[in-house]
Amino acid sequence: MEYYSVKLPKILYLSLLVLQYTKLNGYTNTNDMAKMANSIAKGLVRTRKDKQDYKFLEDTNYGGLRGNFSTQMTLRGMIKRGSRYTAYYGIGANDRLLNAVVKGQIILDDPTSLVAHTNDRTLKRILEHESKLLTLRETQAHIKQFLGKNPGLPFERDSLNFPKIAVVRSKFRNSYFMRVLFNRFTDSSNSIIEYNLLNYWQGSSIRKHNMHILFVVPKMSDSDDKDDYWHKIKAIRFEDIIERKPLFIYYDTNLDQCFDSNHNKLDSFELDYAMENFSLDNANIGQRLSYDWEETRSQFNSQENTVVGEVKPTEFFVFLENFLKFSFQFNIDGKTVASLVESASGGPDVILTFTGGTKQPLELEHEWSHYVQHGHQNNKAFQGAWIYANEDWNFDRIKSIFYPEYLKGKIVPEVFLFTDNGVKAARRVDWSVKEPYAEQIDISELSDN
């Protein structure tokens, strides 16, 4: 049988090797991964050309093996372990690669080879993609090297106050910026980038310094030699983000627009403008003194992220429980839904089948904005799909999310399902007019008669 062999970077190989064991705990934490790696692959993790004895476990949180794993992994959120909160990581946007290793769909070769084998073309592409993302993350992480190659840039590292975190300051003014980390692309075309702000919010750094956010926009291509990992450098003001304190922000490369986890727009600026015009280090003292990292990370844990022991239900279970109320049949717009099945096509989550035999795809989301954050507007598989979200109907908010995408010719839903005070409800939106409007759709439980 034909199969594919993919040479992996050492840290990706090691992550897949370790994660198949740590995943049994229901979460992934880089401290646990470092301990497991030293237990099951001690020879591999201590191999480093420039150091004979590289004691990963004695390094700081931002160095050694923990730092390597953090660079490779995608931040998923925060979890609570007893009375403590800790970061939760995974490989990629979901556990596809990990599950493939556990099921034997990906076979890891001898550690000396760092090769993974699979007969699934999609898994091969995902392995190659994650290898490429590791290169991207590692390249952006080495900001000191980048500055050495580009001495004309208007900022410099502050290694004295921040030896382990990429904080820079203007060469000409007393203004500070922290580089936040690339997390993942949220769409298949690599046009929407997610950044994680964990380093920015944690600890007391922003209490001590009035720091703005700096992020790097890469330009990716199909061929490695055309990738530009430092394509564009942008900045966001401290004043524009301190109130909401999102754990993640998003940048749409097509629109040159930033937004937070709740789809609130954020102004981003070119580097030269930010260095000359953003507030200085001695500004915003009152806001900084009132900032509480303990309170902020507890909000991350309860509002934005999956929590072990307090697991956020899947979209399908929320739809089943809150909308269907565990009854699979209902009437909508004069038609009867006879059955529904979860779809495995990579498109919308559910296929509704009407009694006449016609089918209707339906996308399930926790929030309306997740449709855009997941990049579905760029995927032809979502053409004509309806949407359900476990969120109240707010047409102004819905317009702010979907109408700009419609004007760009993107794929947006017209039929919206939700619950109104616990009762099934639906609206159909006409996006084609100058002032979009929504009309109610008749929807009810299936009569026993």
Fold and architecture overview:
By secondary structure, the chain is α+β, with helices and mostly antiparallel strands. It folds into 3 domains: 1-140, no CATH class; 142-309, no CATH class; 315-445. Helices cover 29% and strands 28% of the residues. The protein contains 15 helices and 25 strands. The chain has helices spanning 10-22, 30-40, 42-45, 64-72, 96-103, 121-141, 143-149, 198-201, 205-208, 271-277, 285-289, 293-304, 315-324, 370-373, 395-407; strands spanning 4-7, 74-81, 84-90, 107-108, 115-118, 155-157, 167-170, 176-179, 181-185, 192-196, 211-219, 228-236, 248-252, 257-260, 265-266, 269-270, 330-332, 335-342, 350-354, 359-365, 386-389, 415-420, 423-430, 437-440, 443-445. Strands 24-23-22-21-20-19-18-17-25 form a 9-stranded mixed beta sheet, with helices on one face. α14 (370-373) links the parallel β20 (359-365) and β21 (386-389). α1 (10-22) packs across α2 and α1 (10-22) packs across α5. It starts with a strand and ends with a strand.
